[in-house]
Amino acid sequence: MRRALWLAGLAMAAVSPLHAATMDPAVLPRVQAATFEVVIPKPVKDPLSYEKPLPFDQLPYQQRTDKFYSVGTAFAIGENRYVTAGHVLSLGIDSLMGEPALRDAAGHVYAIDKVTRYSLHEDFVEFSLKDPPKVAPLAVNTQPDVNQVVYAVGNALGTGIVIRDGLYTSQTPEDQDGRWKWLRFSAAASPGNSGGPLLDKDGKVIGVVVMKSPDENLNYALPIDLVLKAPENIASIDTRESYQLDVIEDKHTGDFKAQFPLPKSFADFSAAYQKLHNADVDQKRHELLTENAATMFPNGPGASRLLHVNSDANPFPTLLHRNSNGNWVTSKVAENKAVLPHNGYVSRAIVGQQVMFHLRKPDDVTSKQLYGDSKVFMDLVLKGAPMQRRVGTESVKITSLGEPTLSASFTDNYQRRWQIREWPMAYDNGLIVAFLLPVPDGYSAMVRVTSNRTEHEDMSDLKQLANFVDVSYSGTLAQWKEFLANTELLPSVLSDIAIRFNYGDDFKYQSKRIGFAYTPSLQKIDADSELVLGMSYFQDHGKTVWDVSKVEVKSNIDNAEHVSVNRHVAPSDDLDDSFRNHWGKIVNRSHPDDGVPYSENDMTYIGTVGGTQVSADKKPDVLYTAFYGVDGPRPEDAMKGKLNQLLDKLQVNEH
Predict the structure, then answer these.
(1) Which residues contact 291 (CB under 8 A, 6 or more apart)?
(2) Low-confidence residues of the chain: pLDDT under 70
(3) What angle do CA 41, 213, 36 make, to 5 degrees?
(4) Angle (nearest 5°) at CA 540 between 536 and 545
(5) pTM score of the predicted model
(6) What's the CA gap between 327 and 329, in Å, rounded?
(7) Measured between alpha carbons, how far is 604 from 183 in angstroms, rounded to an integer?
(8) In this structure, are residues 536 and 471 in contact, taking their beta carbons and an 8 Å threshold?
(9) pLDDT of amino acid 214
């Protein structure tokens, strides 16, 4: 809640120049000397490439020449004792930039020496400086009077220290447990004020400015008394946080409570905090999955429908998810497609917190180049899904992120082999995490934009989500030939499948489930013929597998003529009549599985149950249908001849 309120302050209006309202002029120098900007160094190197030079001349002089980002305010409260809001200093935790520091009005920058006190719940941190300046600390008042004039002092909007007046209006319980009360005040506060002192009429500190209410002209400060009474040399974490995984609506909310000893250097403080935070996220994820274990796909009755439907053969990746009725379904997405040169394209859609991609590589890029050089992948994605960096009033297209800083691999529960890549966006303290799944025509991918601080959480999330990806494998025979040569990147299911073809001669498909073959007398076989393996999740001897449930081969990627072999499974007792009716038609060889040609959408089709003899006294669990389709009207005898050619070489090994 505190973070949400603080972020809401980002929309506040600009402030007036430095003024002191009615504060005693004799107090002003002491206040100004004891109040500092909190700054973070800007990244020195930018690995990104842009379509043109960045127009930094559009930025105000101070902003474009400053080597630091000004992010908040701090003040002296004792001899080499400084205080700021906890969320201000946390901006530097595991940052891509550098450690936070303090800067005085003369521009001198002071590095943090040790963090000495910290409370995540109360949102403050106390620390010392290396080579601290000689300043008189601000006096404190732990018993301020309500309805008295107060002054908010801070680095408003990162433009230097300003002092603005208002009233200390009331107190309000903190949201989590009501253990203590915020000070509410009406003095103006802007982004950058966080961590600054709230002063009484005599210039004494009564609180630490931490946030702004989004709904009213009231701001919040932590009573300084709580800072002074906090245990020394302890970092205390006590907050309540929620965790959710994109594939289910349920959340797990729990306490994040921990302590670790201080003092520590900022680097050691950052590492200790991050370790505890990562462990807490992992625990909440574990608890969420444990709470939902009985109904988490592929478990529970809600998974049954999905385990009994045939593949839609869609090469665009999406996620399975549990809907509000408790049933597992495939997420429906609206793809945004952009054309690349040489027959390539990029399709993308937002699914949950990630962008799903399907990259069809250009013909002049080999599989070896694509899978071996992640810069090639991201450069192609940026052509089809542009990213821009805003500088002043202008947005400049990013043409390359450079080489990834992390290259790793991951194998999910269904033995699909993902390539993990990360690219830093240092100018924004951001990070792009990509899970890349090699497919015959390029890549299927999940991509998240995150930060170093949440990298562990997002990386772990994506590893979980990889187990819920629904995607089929599609490509021309030429693409399949290249793809199958990359044996170390293939999913394990393909190790049990033999795909053989000779252009202009024959095509063969053989798995432990089915096999079939044909020659050009059935349909053309060349480099541009398209093979689609429709993948789906189903039960196999009590185990859920991800395997082929549909094989479709088109004579040409742009031609409607195709053959297909489809797997069908007997419905379980918990499924509705629509499943039983559909299954009954297949068993009884009813239309369209009766071997009689029919027309639909300017196509002529013919199909039947193949490779298995169905008898009245034997109830099969699995049946396969074989179909041939071609555009336009065709004679019945010709269509039956095509179907017979397909059935002649169809072998079903699964019953």
Answers:
(1) 250, 252
(2) 1-22, 157-160, 213-216, 612-617
(3) 30
(4) 40
(5) 0.91
(6) 6
(7) 76
(8) no
(9) 65
